[in-house]
Design goal:
Strand 5, helix 10 and strand 6 form a beta-alpha-beta unit. 39% of the residues lie in helices and 15% in strands. It has ten helices and six strands; from the N terminus they run H-H-H-E-H-H-E-H-H-E-H-E-H-E-H-E. The strands form two sheets. A four-stranded parallel beta sheet has the order 1-6-5-2, sandwiched between helices. Strands 3-4 form a two-stranded antiparallel ribbon. It has 233 residues and is α/β, with parallel strands linked by helices. The model has no long low-confidence stretch (mean pLDDT 90). It has two domains: 40 residues, no CATH class; 189 residues, 3-Layer(aba) Sandwich (Rossmann fold), CATH 3.40.50. The relative contact order is 0.16. The structure holds zinc ion. Zinc ion (ZN) binds next to helix 2.
């Protein structure tokens, strides 16, 4: 046994990896979630529908082609807490690992077929500097790992959007208007773009991204993917 793997075993004896949802110690072959919690993910399974609840929420003037969300996001639910943790507790790997899991489930159904490029919803540079990473970019990287589709940083946030949690939907929509900008429209011409975010709540942020792209690249096709999709009940 090499020193490195001995050390790794030793460390995991003291600080074993635990399931993100139920805190039980993970066994060999389990990652992020135990098998039980993995099976119990409140999956949306909406990615095969031509017009799903996700499309409905994102109905605006930019048409959305495909739409997928990994699981339903209920407040205070342990699965929702994983996304919060990936975002605020300096756990970018968690967002990445969940995206890999998600990608593996939608790939066999052909969800990635025809998509040319993945664009994460950008954070304003100041926010990203403070947080150290952009969780949507980690999700994009995870989906890219599974699909082989490149991640692109063509979309930028030109101003910071205030936190969304305490706003009504009209306020949220106003708040996310004209935030995003495409840096190099030519690069996206005729491309099928997958925009990626952590959670879809009102859909205002993703719609704002889609509108920003569509305004300067009307030939682009836009699809959407997120880890969480909120449900009020
Ligand atoms: Zn578990």
């Amino acid at each position: 046994m090499g020193v490195k793997s001995w050390l790794k075993d030793f460390v995991s004896l003291i600080f074993p990896d635990v399931c993100e949802v139920c805190d039980t110690t993970l066994v060999h072959g389990e990652k992020t979630l135990c098998l039980h919690c993995f099976a119990d993910i409140p999956r949306t399974n909406l990615h095969n529908q031509v017009f799903s609840e996700i499309h409905k929420r994102l109905a605006g003037h930019t048409p959305i082609c495909k739409a997928a969300s990994f699981f339903y996001y209920y407040k205070e639910n342990a699965y929702a807490r994983m996304i919060q943790s990936a975002k605020y507790n300096n756990r970018p790997m968690l967002a990445y690992n969940l995206a890999v899991m998600f990608g593996r489930e939608i790939k066999p159904d052909g969800f990635f077929d025809g998509i040319d490029v993945i664009l994460p919803v950008p954070l304003h540079w100041f926010k990203e500097l403070r947080r150290g990473y952009n969780q949507s970019e980690e999700i994009a990287k995870g989906l890219s790992e599974v699909s082989g589709i490149p991640v692109c940083d063509n979309l930028v946030a030109i101003r910071s959007h205030a936190t969304q949690t305490r706003r009504g939907s009209f306020e949220r929509w106003m708040n996310t208007r004209d935030i995003f900008n495409v840096e190099d429209p030519e690069e996206l011409e005729d491309k099928h773009i997958l925009i990626v975010d952590d959670v879809i709540t009102t859909g205002a942020t993703l719609l704002s991204c889609a509108d920003a792209i569509h305004a300067v690249v009307p030939t682009a096709t836009i699809s959407i993917a997120s880890l969480g999709f909120t449900r009020s009940n």
